[in-house]
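Quick look at the format.
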Amino acid sequence: MFNLENKVAIISGASRGIGKTIAEQIARAGAKVVCVSRSLSDVERVAKDISEQGFTAIALTCDITNGEQYQEIVKSVVEKFSTIDILVNNAGVTKDNLIMRMSEDDWDVVIDTNLKGAFNGTKAVTRHMMKQRSGRIINISSVVGLTGNAGQANYAASKAGLIGLTKATAKELASRGITANCIAPGYIETDMTNQLSEKIKDTIIEHIPLGRIGQATDIAAMVCFLASDEAGYITGQTFTVDGGMVMS
């Protein structure tokens, strides 16, 4: 495990799934974790579980599509911990449908949460990270942002946009010692994938060279690496964690 002692990390969408696991793994690596979600009760349970294991975690609620609310989150974190070293833009939603049937509202909700939310988080931490001349910004995209997927035009566009946002952020902030990188998970075992039939799971696995659906810990391990000092010379990159499903 990479050493993140004395680091402070903000993770959006930390109430469940991949975000929850990222928060747990970053805490185990020594960081003080700020778990952010729209639902305070859900994210409080995550922070409580982490704290009961002997690590430092707090829960904060925020509508990440609201830039002012995100600024307030960052302000409260700096007041409490004096620093912000790691931002993980993980929060995301889906509203799947074919383009011809997709409503503008379903398009807007996904773009606002998945892409604008990451922009708001990045903007909110940038000034503080620039002052301290260090920081790690990690965006959770998807292989769908690289390949596209029928019925997910809004989701694919938001995740492809995250890759572009990551590269622009990396170029803007590199001179201040801040890195920005992107992780594109493939099929990961979550509550959502657990609802798939065994037949569909078998079809998915046929397209994964490593022959299995990934675990949230696979994504969290990459986050811990990119947040660590060992990754200090890596920026503007997108890492697929997908069992080899997408190869270029």
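Next, a different chain entirely:
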Amino acid sequence: MRAKRIAGLGFDYAAASKVRVESCNLCGNPVFVGLTHHDRYGYPSTASGCSRCGLVFLDPVMTRDAYAAFYARTYRPLVSAFHGRLIDARTIQQEQRAYAAERGDLLAPYLSGRHRTLLDIGGSTGVVADVLARRFDLRATVIDPAPLETIEAQALGIETIEGLVEDVDLGTTRFDVVVLCQTIDHLLDITGTLARVRQLLTPLGLLFVDIVDFRAAYLRNWSVENAVKVDHPYYLTEATMVAYLLRAGLEIVRTDYAADHLHVGYVARPSTPQPDYMPPSAATEGLWREVRLVHNAPVSRS
């Protein structure tokens, strides 16, 4: 059974080092709405939402050191236990190649011979970076916190930096293309990371980022708890992701609903920051009403 497989990992989430969230990472508001009391794995992981902008996040959240240890030892075994099949740095590569080909098709109209360098943040095994680099003649660099995954990227001849992007110092290096593929939900500081991405992009630079749409996730399983997991500090909606990008100075040139109907992708380029941009209040109010509807549905739809 799934619960037995997860318990067999011996990961003690309750004992992991955590910190309380004092203010919303998107808008700075300190007033939250408590949403869940456990996650899809059964851990006592609680999620809250910002009462002002609708951003959803784990609170308390594991510290940087705790997450570094989690990704090094627990992340892939936990996902494997949840799905009941081996998902590791080797087995995931076929799926990553298919994903990279699809994202390459999405990016193709926006890339030209003037784009020469690629940074893949949270680049895992380097497969996505490798596919994009070969297709568009880019020189690729991968940042990822999991050593077993960066080893795979090194085997492809890709420059790798092991660690969390929030802790990596790239100095004055700039990139023509930056991608955060199925990564932004894993970050500890989205505002800070996107500000850094904006700095890292050359004037002709291009960003691709995709989110697990929180609304799609809880509506798919008709369960808010099943949409929450310890490996995702944040739970983004279209409204909050658009706000993040515009506030950081990243103009959206394409939005794409992925074939899995779960992920939403954005192609963006540098523009003037809109630091005061907020999600529409109607979107936030509608989110809370919908969450309560799912919480209190009389009949399970899972």
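The chain has one domain: 2-275.

See the schema section for token definitions.
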